[in-house]
Design a protein that fits this description.
alpha/beta, 9 helices, five-stranded parallel beta sheet, single chain
């Protein structure tokens, strides 16, 4: 048998890219695998950047997908500190920043996402932080631990903003969160759960300024010292952390002429509009057969599972990426997992198994269910209750398949999950 001379190129030395390379070898692909990434770091998982690593609890290496030597053992060629500038689908080449051209038989775009930045006067001052890579988290951790502790202003009340706020409070920093919304996380969780997270942060000393944004920053000797809000309020700030979302890094896909619509559009097998190019992770808007819609999710589980699925598809396996969306967070004494998809207009109400209120400032033990008008479960969240994700995921799958649940039993702590809950 002749050697496999095919070359599979992965642009994005990320969790998704590393899992794709791993899957290619696991599926028996023996050709060349090139893993190209802009960072010098070996592929790593990003949740610790705003959680354990930022909090000083976890070492850097804990987040590595694999140690560096693993890639050599698997015959995976790491090309780190290199940027892909262009893709030529007709010639099947990728042009790198050194003008080197790499030929491919199949290409995977796992280019991830980029942080959204503030465009206001003074936004270039020292002390204004964004969080996307290890150097960002290192710099932020160092800034949070100086003495005396800085006055911290967090711009944005999404997951990253709130996790930074929790880490800052853990270091003893005074924290104010500014957001144009009326409650934290309301756009992703709705009013009911937003109230819980607001109460949790306020119980831990965080102040909120709702319904406003930052108009400009004031500085002294080049370092940020204050922020003027849209309503004219001026706040002291020695350190600013901006967490206003991310956008998919679709530049390569757009340049290559691929279909792009809130991400690189793929089918359920993670194949793009080009028959030789795949996409996965943050950058991909993929057809999810379970939800019957294109979906782009920006979470760890999608990078992990999507990378594996993409590798299998590139290796020639039949793939239908019907993943139940999943994410998690840890803030103070609250640990939670969420599965499903319940955007605005996708559900009618939220019901709880347990009391979602704080007790003496402590996070509750509760499960929340997002229900449609016909009582189908489209999302569920377990807070400080563990080993129930498989059951909750089964409820969500049943809900999207059209099977309703019994709300009275959903909210009954004595009723087993999930089999007896379905009508």
């Amino acid at each position: 048998m002749s050697a496999d001379e095919r070359v599979f190129v992965i642009v994005g030395a990320s969790l998704a890219g590393a899992r794709a390379a791993e899957a290619l070898r696991a599926e028996g692909f023996t050709g060349r695998v090139l893993l190209i990434g802009q960072e010098e770091e070996v592929p790593y998982e990003r949740p610790p950047l705003s959680k354990g690593f930022l909090q000083g609890k976890d070492p850097r290496e804990k987040a590595y997908v694999h140690p560096r030597e693993w890639y050599a053992e698997q015959g995976i060629e790491l090309m780190l500190g290199r940027r892909a500038l262009a893709v030529n689908p007709a010639a099947r080449t990728v042009t790198l920043d050194s003008d080197e051209q790499v030929s491919y038989d199949k290409l995977l775009l796992a280019t991830g996402s980029k942080v959204r930045t503030l465009d206001v006067p003074g936004a270039d001052a020292d002390g204004i932080h964004y969080l996307r890579a290890y150097p960002d988290s290192e710099a932020l951790r160092q800034a949070l631990t100086v003495d005396p502790r800085p006055q911290v202003l967090v711009v944005g009340s999404g997951w990253i903003g709130l996790e930074i706020a929790a880490a800052a409070r853990g270091y003893g920093c005074p924290v104010t969160v500014v957001t144009p919304d009326r409650a934290p996380l309301r756009h992703v969780l709705g009013d009911e759960l937003a109230a819980l997270f607001r109460a949790l942060h306020e119980a831990n000393g965080v102040e909120f300024r709702f319904g406003t944004g930052v108009r400009e920053f004031g500085s002294l000797d080049g370092a940020v010292r204050s922020a003027v809000l849209d309503d004219g309020t001026e706040l002291a700030a020695d350190l600013v952390a901006v967490g206003i979302g991310i956008r998919p890094a679709t530049e390569l896909a757009e340049q290559a002429g691929l279909a792009v619509d809130n991400g690189v559009v793929t089918d359920a097998g993670l194949l793009t509009s080009d028959p030789h190019i795949y996409a996965c992770g943050d950058v991909a808007s993929s057809l999810n057969p379970l939800l019957d819609r294109h979906l782009r999710t920006e979470h760890w589980a999608n990078a992990r599972a999507g990378g594996k699925a993409a590798g299998k598809a590139m290796a020639g396996q039949e793939v239908s990426y019907a993943q139940v969306p999943y994410f998690f967070t840890d803030q103070y004494d609250l640990g939670m997992e969420y599965c499903g998809w319940a955007g605005p207009g996708d559900y009618a109400r939220v019901v709880f198994r347990g009391d979602p209120s704080l007790r003496d400032g402590k996070a509750p033990e509760v499960i929340a269910f997002w229900l449609t008008d016909d009582d189908r479960v489209v999302a569920a969240m377990n807070i400080n209750i563990w080993d129930v994700q498989d059951d909750l995921s089964a409820l969500v799958k049943a809900g999207f398949a059209g099977t309703p649940a019994d709300p009275a039993r959903l909210t009954d702590p004595s009723a087993p999950l999930p089999a007896t809950l379905l009508r």
